[in-house]
Amino acid sequence: MTPPSRHITLKDLARELGVSTASVSNAFNRPDQLSPRLRERILSEAQRLGYQGPDARARTLRTGRSRIIAVVLAETLTYSLNDAVSSELLTGIAEVLDDHGHTLLLLSGRQPGSRQTSGTASMADGFIVYGLMPSAMLLNELPAQRPLVAVDFNIDGQPMVHIDNEPASHAIACYALATPPRRIGVLALRLTETPCNGRVTEEQPWLTAERTITRARLDGFHRAFEEHGIDPAAVPVWNIEENTHDICAPVIASILDLPDDERPDLLLCMSDRIALTALTLAEQRGLRIPEDLRLTGFDGIAEGQYRSPRLTTVRQDSTEKGRITARMILGLVPAEPSLLATELIVGESCPYRVTFGLTNPATQSLRCTANLGGNGAGRRPLGGVIDRVIEDHADNPLNLDIA
Amino acid sequence: MTPPSRHITLKDLARELGVSTASVSNAFNRPDQLSPRLRERILSEAQRLGYQGPDARARTLRTGRSRIIAVVLAETLTYSLNDAVSSELLTGIAEVLDDHGHTLLLLSGRQPGSRQTSGTASMADGFIVYGLMPSAMLLNELPAQRPLVAVDFNIDGQPMVHIDNEPASHAIACYALATPPRRIGVLALRLTETPCNGRVTEEQPWLTAERTITRARLDGFHRAFEEHGIDPAAVPVWNIEENTHDICAPVIASILDLPDDERPDLLLCMSDRIALTALTLAEQRGLRIPEDLRLTGFDGIAEGQYRSPRLTTVRQDSTEKGRITARMILGLVPAEPSLLATELIVGESCPYRVTFGLTNPATQSLRCTANLGGNGAGRRPLGGVIDRVIEDHADNPLNLDIA
DNA sequence: CTGAAAGCGCTTACAG
DNA sequence: CTGAAAGCGCTTACAG
């Protein structure tokens, strides 16, 4: 009958039914607080009148809970949404939030934070902060006293979820050095305090390990170099400002275009995106992988395994990282520092032993799990060894022995 | 002094300052409504007392506007966040929202929509619905009377943003058929009404063009076939259920493993992901591209252009699609059906003329812009021709003449 | 099991 | 330019 003139509210519905607003509210929120019969009557009448249920805006104000969790991304949304690692993290976060009736609000820390946007931030019940913020500004604009979890970098006094960057980097470098290279190159990601897209010179100050995962990865490489009698200072480092093909390409081109006697034959890359770009550019130049150039990545993104040659890399389970973070922000697990294990994936871009003329490169593959500590083991990365080897091909047993 | 016992509100601040709540509100929201001196006093006192500004939850209830736009994704969030095309769409949406002080809430249409999640949906000021919903259920749960824009599929009575699928598919098929293939295969994406991951049989009913972009793409292929004297019914169609490597791979493997005299030498794929999977599997089998197998994609994602051979494909500007959609939902442009143009990108996976033994495959590349109608040209795809050719390499002029 | 009432924190006509 | 007051739509003790 009465077509909803404009907008029907809980109060209207209660009046229409001749019951109290409390009963209508309970019909939707607390079935145990009223008789099934009344509840049924309320719900069916609601449907008939086109009442969709209590307004989230009012519920939020009243209860103080919006069921929204904000993810504050250090990078631009453009980057974060198109990067495999951030996407996986968001996937894990979204999965857990969804399972618990929460939704995901995306915020970017890159723009200064117009008052409007940071005002909206105060809708969220909690905050997940991913990656190093360009400035502390945005963090200050976040409402205090609400739960916050940091991912991949440290905020004083806040719980943190991260991976064992230093041991993982150490492990993959040791693995690669098992076949002695002639010349090594390191490709770092946002290592320097001031932007630098290219060869890093001695005088450039580096970010501290507290502030960037890159530093911890470099520390792992350097420890491996020292253990193999290589002077870390003698290994050139190139820096990449953003983990995208377009930014990587010129730096890598400059390396690959070096004369044969200066070009590294082993590139340790701090991300799979960097390694994949190097792979593409190397192929374009007719360089043979792995004979002329060996490459290692970091992250273990799908794209690196769905092509030939596959990347040798460290796999981090970003999805699981997201899940843990989300559980923490929802209070499903204690908000304690959490450290995730990583896994060494051996592909053809840097095989265990470089063998020429293999007919089927797949037989060179194996997968190693680096059980380096795992969750909740404290804030500091643990030392550890690769202690398990899973072979893809039983007919080609290999034993890795990497300290 | 008085450390904020728990939580300071606008009212507290007004009392502390001896001004009305209206003045405090105006200090934050409407600078022109009070003297600069008073505003200054209010803002500095706010800062001193740790008042972060008006609470978004209360503002939202009072004003009826949350500055949140929800994107309802037909696929799971896992898929959408990891798929290049959806990511680009979200990127475009986020960019415009951000510029206008709005934020992005992600919802998935895949799960039935627990009451909690769909309750939260009612926070949003507007809805962007992307892709065909598995059921109409979720749409009904969305609050009526709030703006809604559909992307890539039709909801009766709602504005829609989409691309010219049929003409674009027609164009790329005509282009590929310029070199006569021996056998063609079509790889479709979610074409059938009931799930089918593999060869499509005659009796399987197809979704209508209204409901899926796939159908329009197939129609474009078929028109091209007919124009080239090929009976569409004689061209086999394989269906892919999800646009991911893992789901594509077995279907494509089954095609590539056909005997030489049954295997297609031209695969028209409805997405770049499908084409890239085919490329990888073909390479693993030692098939030469393009001599043994030519491939075309659809979408123009970066991954298809950052490898060798590059994909021949139709580029759609998903980012721009997102921008237009976001402007529409914010009311910055009229909420009218919008049709975006696409572009034919010619890579080495299906070159213009198949020439054997080219030393530099890059010289075979060119790029064609298919100006097929553009924005706001009405709800139905327009016919049209590729009317502009941009050459990557001036030393290798090519003229395309595709009707 | 049900109903009357307070109040979440804000914005906005409106009167001064 | 400023202040007093209503009310956005709901939830939740609390009394019955």
Describe it.
Two copies of one chain form a homodimer. Chain A is elongated, with a radius of gyration of 26 Å. In chain A, the strands form three sheets. In chain A, strands 2-1-3-4-5-12 form a six-stranded parallel β-sheet, covered by helices on one side. In chain A, strands 7-8-6-9-10 form a five-stranded mixed β-sheet, sandwiched between helices. Chain A has three domains: 45 residues, lambda repressor-like DNA-binding domains (434 Repressor (Amino-terminal Domain), Orthogonal Bundle), CATH 1.10.260.40; 95 residues, 3-Layer(aba) Sandwich (Rossmann fold); 211 residues, Rossmann fold (3-Layer(aba) Sandwich). Chain A has 403 residues and is an alpha/beta fold. Chain A starts with 9 loop residues before the first helix and ends in a 12-residue tail after the last strand. In chain A, helix 1 packs across helix 2, helix 2 packs across helix 3 and helix 11 packs across helix 12. The C terminus of chain A is likely disordered. In chain A, helix 8 links the parallel strand 3 and strand 4. Chain A contains 14 helices and 15 strands. Chains A and B meet through helix 4, helix 5, helix 6, strand 2 and helix 7 of A and helix 4, helix 5, helix 6, strand 2 and helix 7 of B. Strand 2 of chain A pairs antiparallel with strand 2 of chain B. The first copy, chain A, binds a DNA duplex (16 and 16 nucleotides) through helix 2 and helix 4. Chains A, B: GO terms for molecular function: DNA-binding transcription factor activity; transcription cis-regulatory region binding. Chains A, B: Pfam families: LacI, Peripla_BP_3.
